[in-house]
Design a protein that fits this description.
alpha+beta; 5-stranded mixed beta sheet; two-stranded antiparallel ribbon; 15 helices
Length: 409
């Protein structure tokens, strides 16, 4: 098996070790490592790329950093704290505003998970994600927010949420479903059924004195898993998502919640992905095996560590939601010609969810999907199409393995 040292460089291992110390509330600074000023520069850059730089503040020995590096860490941490407090207050205000109108809006990420960190303000939050259980209520919620200083964004294309902007350009996503549709029909059907009754599994939680609705641990965990999976089969996700995973389960002392979570994983067919994500957190980020949401006997053994490390390699390369590599746009469930065709057809359905139900429209919609892809690629100044196709194929084997269903768990 490939050695860890050849898979991950010193910068990456230092960042993982630093996050492990931070998430476990240790008072020990990262002083045992022999790093040069250039090494620290690379660690800071990588942490910033993954939006976890502020999390390092409690464990960094600032005296070992240059004045410029200290200023970078301190200024970006200050901005993270300010933005987080601002969005947390807005989140609570919107929760109360909608509740007065009889609408329960569940906070999906943001302060719902930040409250579980040793220092909540160090968990970077860039927007607010609210889930409302039925479409009619979501549309009413949009009207309510628009009557209170928000406007609908016309630039964001998604089928599973509306994007609204405040007068200060604070972004709020009102979700009609947890995620976009997956290619797996069984998973989509399972999620549709699960979401319909999910409001019965939420409760009010205190976030630094403010009240928001959050899911019970098992449901919060399953949402976070599905959120990671959606981004994984897309352009990827970063270390911040793994940090959320660690603090959620480290704070859970309820064995029944772990059982409920594992039941949903098995029923949904996401076992392989849940195993790999959890094993990364156990091996590299210090998640206690006793706290693992995956039963110990189901965690990958040493013979399957290559898949786990391949996923971590993909996460490190991706940065926050795949932004680190311009050729990343999608990960297929294989690297064959059939996989390419299947993925393109799936993208057609995402782009044209209603028209895509009519088989006779498909040829026209395929052409329209290709045109939209080429236009967006040019507008965003991404990598050449050939590079995107090549990257999708290279990730295909890993994506295919981790998204396929295990028959025995």
């Amino acid at each position: 098996m490939t050695s860890i040292s050849s898979l991950f460089n010193k910068t990456e291992l230092t960042l993982l070790h630093s996050l492990k110390l931070s998430l476990r509330q240790t008072d020990s600074p990262v002083t045992a490592l022999s790093l040069t000023e250039k090494d620290w520069e690379q660690v800071i850059t990588l942490a910033d790329r993954h939006e976890v730089l502020a999390l390092l503040t409690p464990v960094l020995d600032l005296d070992r950093l240059s004045q410029k590096q200290q200023l970078t860490v301190e200024s970006k941490t200050a901005r993270t704290i300010q933005k987080g407090i601002q969005l947390q207050a807005l989140n609570a205000r919107l929760t109360g505003l909608l509740e007065k109108e009889g609408i329960i809006a569940v906070t999906l990420k943001g302060c719902a998970v930040a409250r579980l960190y040793p220092v909540a303000e160090y968990r970077k939050t860039t927007d607010i994600d609210l889930f409302v259980e039925n479409r009619e209520a979501v549309e009413r919620a949009v009207q309510i927010l628009c009557a209170n200083g928000f406007r609908l964004s016309k630039e964001w294309h998604a089928n599973h949420h509306f994007v609204l902007l405040s007068e200060r350009n604070e972004e709020v996503e009102l979700h009609t479903t947890w995620t976009e549709e997956f290619k797996e029909k069984h998973l989509n059907q399972y999620l549709e059924k699960l979401q319909k009754g999910s409001s019965r599994h939420c409760q009010k939680a205190d976030c630094q004195g403010l009240q928001v609705y959050v899911y019970e641990t098992a449901w919060q965990g399953f949402y976070l898993l599905i959120h990671m999976l959606l981004h994984f089969v897309g352009s990827g996700f970063g270390l911040r998502n793994l940090c959320d995973w660690v603090v959620l389960w480290e704070q859970c002392n309820d064995a029944e919640a772990r059982q409920d979570f594992w039941r949903m994983v098995c029923e949904s067919g996401t076992v392989r992905f849940a195993k790999a994500v959890t094993e990364i957190c156990v091996q590299y980020l210090g998640l206690d095996k006793e706290k693992s949401p995956v039963p110990a006997e189901n965690l990958p053994d040493s013979s399957k560590r290559e898949v786990v490390d391949a996923l971590l390699r993909d996460i490190l390369d991706a940065g926050e939601f795949g932004y680190s590599e311009s050729e990343r746009m999608v990960g297929m469930d294989g690297d064959s010609l059939t996989a390419y065709i299947r993925e393109f057809h799936h993208q057609m359905h995402i782009n044209f969810p209603k028209a895509g139900r009519v088989l006779l429209f498909w040829p026209v919609l395929w052409i329209a999907t290709l045109i939209r892809f080429l236009k967006n690629n040019k507008k965003l100044n991404r990598a050449p199409v050939s590079a995107i196709i090549k990257k999708a194929g290279s990730r295909g084997k890993l994506v295919g393995h981790l998204t396929s269903r295990e028959k025995k768990v």
